[in-house]
Design brief:
This protein is of the alpha+beta class. It folds into 2 domains: 117 residues, 3-Layer(aba) Sandwich (Aminopeptidase), CATH 3.40.630.30; 150 residues, Aminopeptidase. The protein has 8 helices and 13 strands. α2 runs antiparallel to α6. The longest helix has 12 residues. The two termini are 36 Å apart.
């Protein structure tokens, strides 16, 4: 008989559990993701224990009691198929029952998510590229520190669907990250971040009004890292211009997820989402 998990909320010093397990799964988290993720919701990360050994983890990050995003659903490979995943899954969903939930599901788990009431919205595709220097147009490109923070939060919320100011502030303060904004006539037209990961770099988010502004931010971000480095961009498949961007820079698909929702899905401007922030937090 499978013992019941003792499920606890993770403290900051315990965030190495989901991060290291995600690394082992090949999900390639950022070097400093733990602090940013914890800042998003300090009650959102859980692990299940038997005899003081963590066997499973999950996150369900709550955005203003309106929407929550599920991630880090991992069971220690040695203990899979024994019911521990179902225990921690039920715990997470019961904790925030009644609000819309989203997730980016790996292929192997998508049937499980459907059985729990999640519905496919669209595919996300991760692309891999190799960095090089670009002769990019620097006009109107600024750092976030040169802009009132609340304005950037509002721009981010229009593309993510909900405000996430605590997370965004921590995301921008990562020491191994670069962020750029295009500001014209006091209007934000594009915003992007690139950060160091265990393997290479990831761009995310990349939000822009159109292809041209997305490309300029893309060039600025990829030119800010050393040449000949691997970098990744996660695009929502419905964004035709994002597909055009990755093809223009000879990027190759390496991984995919399914964006799924349980409840009324937020109406996102996917044509302006050229890069998803994170498969773990949306």
């Amino acid at each position: 008989m499978t013992p019941n998990l003792k499920i606890i909320t993770l403290a900051p010093q315990m965030m190495h559990i989901p991060i290291s397990w995600a690394k082992a799964e090949g999900w390639n988290p950022g070097l400093e993701d733990a602090l940013s993720f914890y800042a998003a919701d300090n009650h959102g990360f859980s692990a299940g224990y038997v005899d003081d050994r963590p066997l499973a983890c999950i996150s369900l990050v709550n955005y203003s009691n309106l929407f929550a995003f599920l991630g880090f659903f991992i069971v220690d490979p040695e203990f899979r198929g024994m019911g521990y995943g179902r225990q921690i899954w039920n715990y997470a969903l019961d904790r925030l029952n009644g609000i819309c939930l989203g997730l980016d599901g790996v292929v192997a788990q998508q049937d499980f998510y459907r059985r729990s009431g999640f519905v496919l919205a669209h595919r996300n595709i991760r692309y891999h590229g190799i960095s090089k220097r670009h002769s990019w147009d620097t006009r109107d490109i600024i750092s976030p520190r040169d802009l009132h923070y609340h304005r950037l939060c509002d721009f981010d919320a229009r593309h993510f669907g909900f405000h996430r100011s605590s997370f965004l502030q921590a995301w921008l303060l990562q020491k191994n990250a670069q962020a750029r904004i295009i500001l014209q006539d006091s209007r934000i037209l594009a915003f992007g971040v690139i950060r160091k990961c265990f393997e290479g770099y990831k761009i995310g988010p990349l939000f822009a009004e159109d292809y041209d502004h997305a490309e300029r931010i893309f060039q600025a971000l990829t030119s800010s890292i050393p040449v000949d480095q691997s970098f990744y961009l996660d695009i929502p498949e419905p964004n035709i211009d994002a597909q055009r961007l990755v093809k223009a820079y000879a990027m190759n698909p390496v991984f995919e997820t399914a964006r799924m929702y349980k409840g009324s899905a937020p109406k996102l401007p996917l044509h302006r989402v050229f890069g998803i922030t994170s498969f773990e937090l949306g």
